[in-house]
Every structure is written in structure tokens, then in C-alpha cells.
Amino acid sequence: MKQKLKTLGYAGISIFLCLSLIRFPDQALEAAIRGLNMWWEVVFPSLLPFFITAELLLAFGVVKFLGVLFEPIMRPLFNIPGAGSFGWIMGMASGYPTGAKIAARLREEKQVTQIEAERLVSFTNNSSPLFIFGAISAGFFYNIKLGLLLAICHYSANTIVGVIMRFHGKKQEQHLTKKKRYPFSLRRAFQEMHRNRLKNTRPFGEILGDAVLNSIQTLVMVGGFIILFSVLIKLLFLMDITPIIASFIEPVLPIFEMPKELGLPFISGLFEITVGSNLISQVTTDSLLQKAILISFILGFNGLSIQAQVASILAKTDIRFYPYFLARLLHGTIAVILTILLYKPLYLDRIVINSNEIPAATMQDSSIWMNTYFFLQSIGPSITILSLAAASFIIIYKIKKR
User: Alpha helix (H) ranges present in 60-185?
Assistant: First the structure.
């Protein structure tokens, strides 16, 4: 019976999406183009170098090297092997879904157990500094100082989530044989790296080609989800479904001293972070704190679009999705608490004001993240097209070689 209900549910969603596309073809096309632009201008060129680098570092054993060095830190703090430090660092630097991608690769190589991979995924899918400072702070709010508050709350909350999730699956691990813990040793770290590299018998050209191809395949999947959710959000709005959902949220917002107008942007943010953050920035509020609270939550929640990307990556492994989802709720909640506590010391006390509050839109500051974001928008399409052409060439070459 349960499987029959699933079949009906999947079929109903598919039919609804199909009929909605037929009913609103022009608006759906516009939303698809908006999602495509976001993907090929910023997402693809910003994530591609990190994905390729991650594949190369895994292939050459550098992750094994880092794993030995960081074992004394990662094991007591997060209850995961030292190799997880690579996913944590790369996740913070490049943003989602890099953490999920690396966790899945580490699991495929059996450098982490299933439970350890689930812990790792729960706190390595962060928003990147480029998105927080470039897109949200500079692009939407024209206020780099807000980015500092959001970034500190976001990454601090994420670390706290990692510490809490160290207890995940402890009962399931009781029957497993505990691995011997080694002290810090550069020599052993190098030996592990060298041993891992010797196991990989592929020539350098093939390793590089596979790294490029695997990275581009993942990013094409990410692009598909971005376009799909961009269209879905637009269709839900046109069918008055999003406003209906928002109507249940709007009566609750005044309890937290927030205007009802933030209800629809917040619901949109739960689906897709970029769209929701942009809509939140356009709402007039008494205090910037009200907007910062909602954005902190949706950044921690990741948005259903990002969660769908992560679920797709994890589906190829035995890593379960629900620990990641629970961690997202926890991350958003902790980030909100930190935003409330740190708003005055990290934001208000850092600026010179003549009143008790400043307007959300202040003069745009120069920032390396802002400059990088706008630079990617200008050259991003060229990088994306060249990369897709390179992937096509590699595929054709492999087919001919066979």
C-alpha cells in the first residue's frame, strides 16, 4: 500500500508540473533562463576549480596525508577520521554541494564508514564566502558589514552542529572494532600519501581527464536542479500555492516582531536561497536584524534546491539523507540564536551611526569577494562553455580509445 501511495504521489507531482508548464510557458521559460544564467555565470566557474582540485588531491593521496595530520583534531572534536578535515575546509571555501561530493568520494574509497560519512555531510555543506559577501551582502543589501555578521554566525553554527552530530550513530558503532589511534607524525602521513598514490596506476593525463569529467558531470547535475527549482518556485507562485503556504507563516511573524511581508520571501528562501535572500532584501523593515535572522536560517537550512542536489549525490552511496536534513534544521536554529546575540557587537558597534539603527542599503564597500563575484559574472559564461567543450572532447576521446 505504501509503495502504491508513493507511485500516486510521484505521478501526481509529475502531472502537476507538466500541466503547469503548459499553463504558463512564457513565465516558465523566463524562470529557466534566470536559473541558467545564475548557474553558468557564477555557480559553474566558481565550483569547477574546487571540484577538480578535490579529485586530484584524492587521486594523489594528499587527503590521506591530511587525514593522518588532522586525526588528533577531527576525532575528538567531530568523531570522524582526519580525512574529514579536507571536506570541512573545502566545504567552507567553495560552498555547497562540495561537502557532500567529498564525503561521497571518501565513502567510495572507504576512508570513512557510513556513520562517519553521515556526520561529515551534516556539517560540511556551508555557504561559500563568495555567496555570503558577494551575492547577499554586496549584491542584495549593498552592505559588506552585514556579510561579516552572517559569515561568523553561519560558520560558527556549522561547527557547533558538527560537534553535536559527533554523537550520531554511536549505538550503531558499538559493535564495530575501534581503530587504533596514532599520534601526530609527518613521516607516517607521507608514507600513507605515497602508498595511496602507488595504488593509483592510472597515468597523469587520465587522472586529470577523469577529474575534469567527473567534476563537470556533477556540476551539470547541479545546474539542472538550479533550473528546475527556479521554474518550480515561479510556477508555485503563479498557481497561488506559495502565497497559501506563506499565509500560515504570516500570522506567526508578528509574534517575533517581524512584518508579515517577510512571509512570502521566507517561504521562497526555504525552496531556493538566492531567490529568497533577494526578496527578503527588498522588504522594508524597522530593523536590519529582522532580515538577518531569516537569512541566517535559510543559509543554514540550505534550501530544498541544495538539499535535492545533496540527496542526488548521496544516492550513489549508502549515506542516509535524514541526518543531513536534521542537521540543517539544527544549523538554521543555532545560526538564528547567534545572529541575535552577535548583531550588536559585530554589526552595530562596528559602524558610526547618528541614530539607533542604520538603513539596510548603505554605500557599497570594496571587497575581494564582491569583486570576485562580479568578475565571475563577466567571464563565467566563457569558462562554462570552454569547460563543457573540454568535457565533450574527453568523452569523444575515451569512446574512440575503446
Answer: 62-78, 84-94, 98-108, 114-124, 129, 144-164, 170-173
